[in-house]
Structure formats: C-alpha cells, structure tokens
Specification:
single chain; alpha/beta; Rossmann fold; GMP Synthetase, Chain A, domain 3; 2 domains; 31% helix; globular
C-alpha cells in the first residue's frame, strides 16, 4: 500500500480488480519473481478469457524461483524443510540440501527418459522426498501429478491412465496411528493397470508384509536411484505457460478432472497469496495440515519456499499418539503460520481444551483455513483457545481449478467470524443470480469476471469439458460451483457447493467415482451417491443402491458394499450409509437427479422437480431408512 500510494486496503483491492494487468506486474516487482527472461506483456486474452495467457514472451522455472536463488550463499544454510513424524522424530533439510536432492532427482528422471511435458505420478505422503520429487519435475519441464496418499489402487490407476503418466514415484509405506500403511502394494497394482507407466521409483521405509515385485515396472529404490547423480542440475528456462502440475479434482459426473497449472501463473499467484494473505516471510516456519494430493500440498510448497520460509511437513494422524500432537508440534518447532481446515478443528475439539492448554502457542501469528465452510462454534474455538484472541484467522477459499483463492481475509483488515472477508487481491469476483446479474443481499453463484494468473489452463485432454464445466453457465464468466452471499457490511460468506460434488474432510470426490466403484459389485444394478452433512468431515457419503434381480437387501450386504467402495477408493471414501431402493429418480432422458435425492433424503425443499420422470421414487427415498 505504501509503495503504491494507496491509503487503505479497500482502495488497493479495488484498484487491483479494476486493472489486473497493472496489479500482477506490480506483484512480480514487489516479490522479485525470478523470470529468467523478462516478459513483454502481462496478459493476452485474444483467444478468449478462458484461454488467457500470462507473462507473454518471458521465460521462467518455478523450481528456480522457489529453490535455486535461496540455495546460493549464506541463505543456503537456512532451513527449507522440517519433517515431523508421529513418534516425535524429525528430519531437516537446508535449502542447499534440498537443492542437491532435487537436482539428483531431476537428473535421474532424465536418465529414465523423462523430458519436457512428460507426466510423473507422485503417490507420496508429506515427506521431504515429496518436495524434492515435485520440484525435480518442474526443474526439467516435466509435469507433476500428485495423487492423494490414501487412495486405493483403482483410484491411483485412474489418474495415471488419464494423464498417461510415464513414471510413478511412490512411498513404500506411510505411518498412520502407529501402523505402517502399505502404499507400495497399491502402487504395484495401479501400475499393472496403467500401461503408460514404464518405471516405478519407491521411497522410504519397508512396510509390513512387503509384496513381491510383480508386473512390468519393477521397483527402483529412491536412494540408489539418486546415488550417482550430480547435485547441481540447472533449472530449464521455460515459457511461462509450460504445464508443471496436473491436480486432479472430481466433478458431479464423469471421470476425475485433471486441472492443468503452469509455471508462470501458478508461481506468481501462490507467491502473492503466501506473502500478502498469509503474511509468510523469509525464515518463518509455516505448516499446513494437508496431503500432496490436495491443492494445499502444492500451495504450501510453492508459497512457503518462494518466500524463503521453512515448510513444516506433518506425516500421519495429527492427533496421534496423543490428542495434543498438533499443538506440541507448534510449540516444538515454533510454527508461526498454521493452516488447518474446519474439519480438522471439529475433530480436535472433541478432545477438549487440555491438549491445547498444555503447550505454549506464542509463536503463532497467523492461523489460516480453507477446505469448507466454518460453523461459528468451531471458528470461535480456534480463535479463542488456539489463537488466544490475538491471532487472525485468514479464511480463504478457492479450489484445485482456481490454483489459488478467490476470496480471502487480509491480516490488516477487520474480521467477522466465519467470513472470508472479500475478494482476494486481483480477483474480480461477484455473486450472480440465475440470470447472471450481480446479487446483493441474497445467496447466489460465486463467479469471477476477469482472468487471473493461477487459473487452470484447462482439463487435461478435455478442453470441451473445461469450457462446459466453468464457462458455459454465464458466457465469459468463471462459475465456481459455490453458493455465496455478501452481508450488509460487505463481508462475504460461502454456503456450500452448488453442484453435487462430495467433500469429505476437505477432499473432493465426484459421485460418479463412488458409483463406478459400487457398480463393480456383482449385486449392484445401479446406484447414486450424495453428501449428507457431517459435523466433523463436512460431508459423509450416502449411497442409494438398486440391487440386481434375486438379491435381497440386508444389513450385511450394506456393510459389504461399503467395504467394497473403500477397497476401490480408499477408506476415507467408504459410504457411511447404504440405502436400498427399488428405483432412482431420473429425468426422461435417464439422468439420475442426485440433487433431488439429497433434498428428499434430508427433508429439504425439492425446488424445481419438473424434469422428474418418476416422482414416486422420491417419496420412497424420503421414507427409506439406513441399512
């Protein structure tokens, strides 16, 4: 504000929205973003807003900005990564050590034949090697494809097949609640179903009951793979629009969507958010409780390292071996910026206040949150008991496809409980009514009317789906899929998804994936999955199942079907309830109306049901009970 001559935050936000090209040029200068060749033009939307290109004519590499410039000289001894395990053990990597590991991994990938544009799957928990592998892909122009570490083999394979990954880097195991989780077994099975994968690299500890290597891609040990590689491989200078990340998210129908993100735009937007929204500075210790397969995994790596901070990685359950693990981490590692989700806080609240009060949390100066909407009780619990009424909760909301946030509280602005403040810097967001008119005083669709650097460059391999999903509702306007409102004081709030996407503990999955897994059971004719409110997780999954002729519903079969879905997608996505019905409500064209199923099941107003072919199916669902 001082440098640009703005008198207050609102005037800066308003100017950043009026003139996005001016603002993002100023961000590059303010944060000294390391373009290897200067750009000629900030923004080119000549092909339409949906296909906007940023920083035209320049060259850049995300890994160069996040790592190389910090690894030289005295700053090379600054701590880059601090890993924390469930048992209290830790690992530390300086910027110089992380640079060396990343260089070796980049060289090793090249020896496997990975070149610019090739996709590399990352099936890893939050460990230092995950950061090195992620940045190694960026270093050579390959595309990193993070996969949620809790997925089962079929879900991993679906993503590898969709992006035609050439290499998979997977952990042998992770640890959760004191038990080793065999990730290599899932990886081996996934690779057997993904013909494009020619090599499997495995990292870390041996799991219990280690499976014998089978199939085409025999495991390569990470340490041996890196042993003879050089420790100073230059970052490749790339066009800013070069893809570096495919982040998978799920929609209401069809297969998972691979949101494509690029070196220049993602770097500039995330670096700006970390610096201005979360107030991350060089030398800070910053932790976001997340997974590599959730967009906040890449966010914390890119944002934290771009600022020259120390990124604290937490592997395993955050309330094991004792309910105070998170708060003990904050005190032990002197964490200054802590990112959480409302789901996590609701889960920790059940342990009471003793775990919090047993630790000095004075190092905290920013609490950040995203993932789903807050409830007032949980928000106040975090603000009062963890932050001591002195630490702001920087509530922000965006998404995998946004690559960043649309809405955010700023540390220098007043805050209302549960609010997202307002538009993030440089983000021309609005709330639209069904006719596409700006809406004040009511709940409508959250939209964005101008491009931003971090926006996805499409859905991998499916440009038409990208346009249909985000740009078709209101032409030339990004429709995000969230309900939003603005109160009389100008504070913004979210009210959940406006589509059918399920959000379980902050992880999104489409009904189609659950239904596809359910359909592989021999007893199932068809099914529909919906999200029911859960006080801890946000959504829990309920499945409505039509059985094949000759199969009778039973409690035992319901449990069997839930276990069947868990085996396919991972335990996180096991249905909480399986309900048996004679038929599913559908349109005349055969489309299943999940929205109406959810409304009927929860006793909510149905709204427009004019397209329904069989209204008796809704009555049966409303009267049904869990099995």
């Amino acid at each position: 504000m001082a440098r640009l001559g703005e008198n207050d935050p609102k005037s800066l936000i308003d100017r950043s929205i009026r003139d996005v090209e001016w603002f993002w040029r100023e961000v590059v200068e303010e944060l000294d973003v390391a373009f290897q060749r200067p750009f000629d033009r900030v923004l080119d939307s000549s092909q339409g807003i949906a296909w906007s290109r940023w920083f035209v004519g320049g060259s850049i590499n995300l890994a160069h900005h996040c790592l190389d410039r910090h690894a030289r000289g005295a700053s090379g001894e600054r701590l880059a990564i601090l890993w924390d395990g469930e048992d209290g053990s830790s690992r530390r990597l300086t910027y110089r050590a992380l640079h060396a590991m990343t260089s070796r991994a980049a060289s090793a990938l090249r020896r496997l034949g990975v070149t610019t544009g090739d996709r590399v799957g990352l099936f890893l928990p939050m460990i230092p090697e995950a950061v090195a592998a992620f940045l190694a892909c960026a270093r050579i122009g390959a595309v990193a494809v993070p996969v949620f570490s809790g997925f089962a083999a079929a879900a991993v394979a679906a993503r590898l097949v969709d992006c035609q990954a050439k290499v998979l880097i997977a952990a042998r195991a992770s640890v959760r609640r004191g038990r080793p989780i065999d990730m290599l077994g899932e990886a081996l099975e996934a690779v057997d179903s993904a013909p494009s994968v020619t090599h499997l690299v495995v990292v870390g500890r041996e799991p219990a009951n280690h499976p014998a290597p089978t199939g085409r891609a025999r495991p390569i040990d990470w340490d041996a793979w890196l042993e003879s590689e050089p420790d100073d491989v230059p970052s490749q200078a790339l066009d800013p629009e070069t893809p570096f990340l495919i982040a998978y998210t799920s929609g209401t129908t069809g297969k998972p969507k691979g949101a494509v993100h690029v070196h220049g735009g993602f770097l500039v937007k995330i670096a700006q958010e970390a610096a201005h929204q979360a107030d991350v500075r060089a030398g800070d210790r910053v932790c976001w409780v997340t997974d590599l397969g959730w967009i906040m995994g890449p966010w914390i790596m890119v944002g934290g390292l771009a600022a020259g901070a120390t990124v604290v990685l937490a592997e395993g359950a955050i309330d094991y071996p004792a309910p105070d693990r998170l708060w003990a981490m904050v005190a032990r590692h002197q964490i200054g910026i802590l990112g959480v989700s409302p789901t996590l806080i609701r889960a920790l609240m059940k342990h009471g206040l003793e775990p919090v009060r047993g630790h000095d949390l004075g190092s905290l100066r920013i609490l950040a949150s995203t993932g789903e909407t807050w409830d007032p009780e949980s928000w106040r619990w975090l603000f009062e008991n963890v932050g001591g009424r002195r630490v702001p909760i920087i509530n922000l909301s965006g998404g995998t496809e946004v690559g960043a946030c649309l809405l955010s509280v700023l540390p220098v602005c007043p805050i209302k409980p549960c609010s997202l403040g307002g538009p993030a810097l440089g983000m021309a967001v609005d709330v639209f009514d069904p006719q596409g008119r700006s809406l004040k005083g009511g709940v409508g669709e959250l939209v964005c009317t101008k491009p931003w650097p971090g926006m996805t460059r499409g859905i991998w391999g499916d440009p038409e789906r990208y346009l249909a999903t985000y740009w078709s509702r209101f032409p030339g306007v990004w429709t995000h899929g969230d309900w939003a409102s603005i109160d009389g004081d100008g504070f913004w709030y979210l009210h959940g998804r406006s589509d059918d996407t399920l959000k379980v503990a902050g992880k999104r999955i489409g009904p189609a994936e659950v239904e596809s897994a359910m359909a592989t059971h021999q007893a199932v004719a068809e099914s529909a999955a919906i999200g029911a409110p859960d006080p801890i997780k946000g959504d829990q999954i309920h499945c409505y199942v039509v059985l094949k002729n000759g199969r009778e519903p039973s409690t035992g079969l319901g449990r069997e079907l839930a276990d069947h879905v868990a085996a396919a997608l991972g335990k996180s996505f096991a249905p909480t309830a399986v309900w048996f019905v004679a038929e599913l409500p559908r349109t005349r064209s055969g489309k299943i109306l999940r929205r109406l199923i959810r409304q009927a099941a929860l006793g909510l107003p149905l709204g427009d049901a004019s397209s329904l072919e069989n209204p008796e199916a809704l009555a049966a669902i409303a009267a049904n009970g869990p099995t």
